[in-house]
Amino acid sequence: MQKKQSVNSKSNTGGVLTKYEIEKYKLIKRLTEAETYEPIDSDKIQATTYDLCVGEAHIIYNKNEPEKIYIGDNTERFKLFKDDHFDRQDEIKMEELTIAPYSSALIQLDEIVDTYSFYNGNKINFLIVGRFDLKLGKVSQGLISQQATQVEPFYKGRLFCYIHNLSSQPHILKFKETFATIEFFYVSGYINDTQQKEMIEILEKHNNEKYKNRQHCIIENDTYLGIKDIRYFLHSSEDISKNFGISHLVKDGINKELDQIVGKIVKDRKYLKPIVDEIEHTIDLKLKIIYIILPILLPIIFSIVTPLIINLFSKTDDSSQNNTNKTQNLHLDQSKLNDIYEGTE
After folding, report:
1. How far is it, in rounded angstroms, from Cα 165 to Cα 142?
2. Which residue(s) pair with 133 in the sheet?
3. Reduced to 3 states, what is the DSSP secondary structure of residue 117?
4. Does domain 12-235 have CATH number 2.70.40.10?
5. Which residues of 239-266 are buried (b: 16+ CB within 10 A; e: fewer)?
6. Phi and psi for 338 in degrees, rounded to 5?
7. What are the pLDDT digits (tens) for 7-37?
8. 204 and 223 in contact (C-beta within 8 Å)?
9. pLDDT for 63-116, tens place per residue?
10. What is the DSSP letter of 108?
11. What spatial distance separates the first Cα and last Cα of the chain, rounded to whole Å?
C-alpha cells in the first residue's frame, strides 16, 4: 500500500496562502513614522486574503493638471510631502479625498507588502507572489482600477491603484478605510538550491535596475526592494509610463517624445505622403459627386422655383391694380360730394 504523502511536504507547496501563512511569513507590514515596522491589523486578515487600506498621499485628475493631495493624520509627515507640493484638498475634512465624476486618481495603499524578508535565514525553495484588486463594494460604486498584474517575488514596498470614477457622483475616500484586497500564491516548490540561488540573483538584479538611485525607495543591506511612497513617481517618469501608463505625471517626457516624432515626420516627408494622398482622394471624390449631381439638380430646382416667382409677381400686379381702382373710386366719391355741396348753396 502506497504511503500517503504529508500535506506539509514541500512537494505539495502550491496554491493560495492561508491567513496563517500570511502571518507566519509576515507578508504584510505597517511602516511607522520612525521607519520601523509594527504588527498588522488582525481584523483586516481573512481566511486567504488581507484587506488593504487607503494610504496618506495621492494624485488626482479632477482637472487638466494633476493635484497632489495629502490626507494622512500626521502633521510632521505632511511637512515632508509639502516639500513636493502636496496639499490638503479640504481643510475641514483633511483626511478625505474626493474623486470627481468621470475623473481618475493614483491611490497609494497604506500597508507595506513584503515578499522578500521571509527568505532571510530560512531554508526556503519557493517563491511567493501576490495579486490585488479593489473590494467588490468599491466596484459596485462605479470605481475601476488599473495596476500591475502582480506583486513580484522579492518586492518590499507599497502598492498603488490607478482609479477611474465612472459614476456621475463624486467618490469620497477616507484615510485608512478598507479599499482593496490581496491574496498570495506559492510559485513553485520544485527547485533545487542551485536554481533557487539563480532565481534570487535574477530578482535582485531586476530590483536594482528598477529602483537603484531612485528617490523614495526601500533599501535594506544595499539591496533595492521597492517603493516607499507615492513621491517615487514624481521623480521617476520612466517607471510611471512603463508600469502605470499615467501620462499626466510625465508631461515633460511626453512633450519631448512628441517633439522627436514631429521632427522625424518633418525630416522624412514619406510619413506625410499617405496622409496628403488620402486627403486629396477624399476631396476629388466629393468634387466628382458634385459635378455629377449638379447638372441633374439644376433643372429640377428651376422647374420648382420659376412658377413660384411668376405667381409671386402675378399677385403683386393684382394688388397694384386693386389699389389703383380704389384710388379712382375715391376721387369719384369726392367729386359727387362736391356737387351735392354746391347744389345746397
Report:
1. 6
2. 181
3. helix
4. yes
5. bbbebbebeebbeeeeeeeeeeeeeeee
6. -65, -40
7. 344 444 668 999 999 999 999 998 777 677 8
8. yes
9. 667 899 999 998 888 999 998 999 999 989 999 999 999 999 999 999 999 998
10. E
11. 156
